[in-house]
Design a protein that fits this description.
With about 400 residues, this protein is of the alpha+beta class. The chain has helices spanning about 5-10, 15-20, 50-60, 80-90, 115-125, 150-155, 170-175, 200-210, 210-220, 225-235, 280-285, 365, 370-390; strands at about 35-40, 70, 95-100, 125-135, 135-140, 155-165, 185-195, 240, 250-255, 260-270, 275-280, 300-305, 335, 340, 340-345, 345, 360-365.
Amino acid sequence: MSAVDPILAEFGYFDVATVNATDGKSASGHIPLRRDRGIVVTVAEKNPSAWLSAQVDFLRSYGCNLPIEVWAYEQEITAEIVQTIAKLSTRQAPVFYRVVQDYRHLYRIKEDHGYQIKLAAIANSAFREILYLDSDVIPFKNPELLFESPEFKRYGSIFWVDYWKMHPYNPAWRLFGLECVDEWEQESGMMVIDRKRAWFAIRLAGYFWRDLAATKWHQNFLLGDKDFFRLSWRATSTPAFFIPHWLTPAGLYLPLSNKFCGITMVQHDVEGGPLFAHINLLKRYILSKKYVPGNSILTHVKRYKLPPFRDYPFPAGPLPRTKLKWAHTRGFKASLPNIDEVQCVDIDDGERFGVSPVTEIVPLSNINPSFGKDLDRVLGGYIDAELKKSSYHPE
């Protein structure tokens, strides 16, 4: 077994012989010793093959041949996942799978800590410059353009905003030694990071996610992992560029009530064009009894017609004994209505602080003529297979 170069190990790079001699967890035969740039994906769900396959299919269809690391907990590396990744991988565009609990990782995890997988994948990746994607994020176009953007070259990290704001009394501000900042929370389903330039911030986030007890404690006032990145970057004065465009919900009109239901988060590029569709609620809709196989999955987008209020104040303080992280204390930009027994997301258009934003619902084809049809085509076969596994029976 060969030794790990200490300089490479500092940035998460391992000698190929060392890695393969221990776990052999590579669908293509090698884990890259050193790559300047690549995509990091995490899977942390029971049956991720459909979403992962669709994601890689879209990436490759745009001509994106960057190597992809797929990270998972050891118990989730099933034969099905191994076969899926092997089918997706080619010599020109390799796809690897990596095990989070590998004892040689610089940032080590001994057990399944849920959200912690994302930070572990970023900290231990073989790539210096990474595009991180949740496995249920589908690109509208080739995202490689982000690495060449002036914003990435200047700041070294690109983040996207979420629907919410963190309350000014949230103890996370004090935990990170920060003054409260009136800004939107982070949506961490996609991130672009130069790990060398952001290494101190990554290590600080790792400290707060160091064990299961700490993880559970943090979840009392922070939702998931997402804001640990934003706050760690701030606490270490690590630059990051936030895309200056609000995310918008994409979805469909439900047949029962004919009401719009947002089931996907659309994030944008620097110029404001659609770049990523985070299909987090779409997965729930498809596995619900309200989904009709064969129907289009995404047909419309709800967006602000007039520029909304960017600088409206924080919400009022929480009621006694309520958690500081939940929607009624986290801002008024979005809501999570239940329509026809389907969980949806909606952006608010009611008056807030004397300002009334104007929204509109437009066909998805107006924004991207082919994406909806391509999603139906690519995801359709995978969805049918998943529904058969779940003994799905529509109402």
